Amino acid sequence: MTAQDEREHQGFTDTRARSFSESFKCLFKPSRSRGTSPSNVTRLPYRSSSSSPKRHSEPPRRSTISAQLDSKAPSIRQHTRTLRRCSPGIPNPFKRAGSGASNSPTRGRSGPNKKGEAKDGSPGNSRSTSNGFRGTQGLYSRSSSNSSCDGSNGTTTSSESHWAMDSLLDQSDNDVIPYRGSNKDIVNGRDKVPDDFISSYEKDALQRATSYPNSLPPKQLYHEGLYTIRSHPDNESLKSLPRFAGSDVTCIIEQDGFKVYEDGSHEHNVKVLELVTRLEKSDYLPVHRQGSLSKPKLGIALSGLFKHHKDECDIENALSLLPNEDGSETNYKKQSTDRSFDKNEKDDSNSISPTQNRKEYLKIVNPEASLGDDELKLINSLSSKIHTSLQHYLQEKNLKPEACARQEAPTFQESYGHPVGIVGAGAYGEVKVCARSRTESDVPPFQTYHDDKYIYYAVKELKPRTDNDLERFCTKITSEFIIGHSLSHYHKNGQKPAPNILSVFDILESSSSFIEVMEFCPAGDLYGMLVGKSKSKGQLHPLEADCFMKQLLRGVKFMHDHGIAHCDLKPENILFYPHGLLKICDFGTSSVFQTAWERRVHTQRGIIGSEPYMAPEEFVNGEYYDPRLIDCWSCGVVYVSMVLGHHLWKVASREKDMSFDTFCKEMTRIKQFKVFEELKHVNSELATSRKIALYCIFQWEPKKRISIDKLLSTQWMKHTNCCLIYESS
Ligand SMILES: Nc1ncnc2c1ncn2[C@@H]1O[C@H](COP(=O)(O)OP(=O)(O)OP(=O)(O)O)[C@@H](O)[C@H]1O
Fold this sequence. Notes:
Structural class: alpha+beta
Helix content: 25-40%
Catalytic activity: L-seryl-[protein] + ATP = O-phospho-L-seryl-[protein] + ADP + H(+); L-threonyl-[protein] + ATP = O-phospho-L-threonyl-[protein] + ADP + H(+)
Bound molecules: adenosine-5'-triphosphate
Organism: Saccharomyces uvarum (Yeast)
Protein name: non-specific serine/threonine protein kinase
Largest sheet: 6 strands, antiparallel
InterPro entries: Kinase-like_dom_sf, Prot_kinase_dom, Ser/Thr_kinase_AS
Strand content: 5-15%
Oligomer: single chain
Keywords: ATP-binding, Kinase, Nucleotide-binding, Serine/threonine-protein kinase, Transferase
């Protein structure tokens, strides 16, 4: 680099700091740094979603993103611990608060079968059974996780034995390669087969199914002419796919609907939300007109006392804040011009952006980054509109004083239908599900859940809570929308969208709130899945947890590859499709650590996220940390919660949490942690490789912690059977 370049670069860095504080202010607002002692840490409930009765009394979340510049981003290197003898146990540290459990969608084994499914023991059929299996060949079943975690000595297999899950079928041009379905025929033969036969058979089968290399190559079972159509609402996209109807593959493990077959493949059956099941059965779409304002919080309906909010369901008339695709004026501008909403309002979507102003400095050096020129323009445009509306809100206590006039562009209702129920709630409002009937113009692939009749969207209503909250509110919605939108519309360099990132489609404004439209995940979140597994004490089968972990890590890797760290990974922000496709959602606290104009990664400081999932460095006063490494720690906590059914500790601070202190002491003294040493898996190789990986994740010194990339290359993840086959795996 020449001196001139350096000066320019320096100039650019300064400019970047200025331009971000001006133009990206919503995304780069310094996070609230913690006080002088860990006692300032905000305690968050286990479930930080709406369903928590404490929701409204909770302290506000620290959702701002820090973009403080630090020249020394900590380097990342893999650190492997030698495993030695077991250490004495620690008391079970974590009591699940589960405040939202009662309102959470519960999971069971399976959803109902649907029309158009393959007969004879298709997964659709097996999903509809609750206590066993049905089919024509095998006579074996297995139902307990304990019996499957028997420490047999086989090893697991590579991605050869994967099956493609339904959701990817709709996006067959995506980042995933469909492999085959698993149409397994199993006989519910518990009563017919002697127990000892079952157990010795299963032991062998389990060993075969999880051995390297797989002793039963799936291709041997993969006959032409045996393909069939699995249960999936979108039959059109299935026809082109090879489907496996291997009737002689036996299910050797079954736990809460999760099934592992002797060829090493597996199948998830995450129960769909009751709401969706009901809608699929009904011939019409019920209208859910009640908003939170009209819903009495008391058990008794005092209709006379509760004022009916005039705008309670005006989302159907909401208009998009996004520029039209052809670049013409936005709905927002038309609307505001029509009614002279704000004389001072400027539409700056066409004004000169900081990018143009500083073209000589702002060279794109990192084309992979999610935040580039287009996003900068969108941020400018959106934050200006949101600010203007919020100013008006301050004066009138209404985002829009007049009813939203119908414009030429499609309204919310035309594009997304109407609300049919509530699926959750967050800090700023409810998450509703909207549905509209399918029309002839709706052709696959669809970007959201759908069935034969309807297309579903998740719609998050966002409304400021108090007048003092406006800055935080603006940050939250701009950050959430821009990051989600840019990640889910990532078409730069011809790349495909990531299958594990929730798609964000639109942001609209109604007379009472802002509305974010997203892909709908009909099986709800991981939190609901865990609390619904009361029989298995909230634990997932390790093979199921491994598959989810791999998908989670792939999603996080995608974010990191594009300059974004999630910073609030937790079960509530991990959503599912019924066949196990995992989607990461809620980018409201995500951090942009590298934009298109930067080569280096920015560290940050302050507390972000939810306590049990936060990395220890977040609690160190004033310490700058790499946000990618806090994501890695959170993934580890999520994983352990999936296999243990409870948290390891409430907070990763030695002063505040005895359990975390015990962990640190054990690791310092004997370089082992009893909980990890005792974790069971289906075989010893997987147990060992997973344990090593967990030690690499739970390094309290961030410098020693493994990165997401390296974690994906560990023996554990390499030998984890995942439902999705990724292009680059
Ligand atoms: N696309 C979706 N499909 C299905 N359910 C969803 C979807 N989005 C959100 N939910 C449900 O709503 C809950 C709250 O959503 P989300 O976490 O996005 O809200 P939030 O306002 O960001 O919450 P908070 O800020 O408190 O974390 C989720 O935990 C999930 O159960």
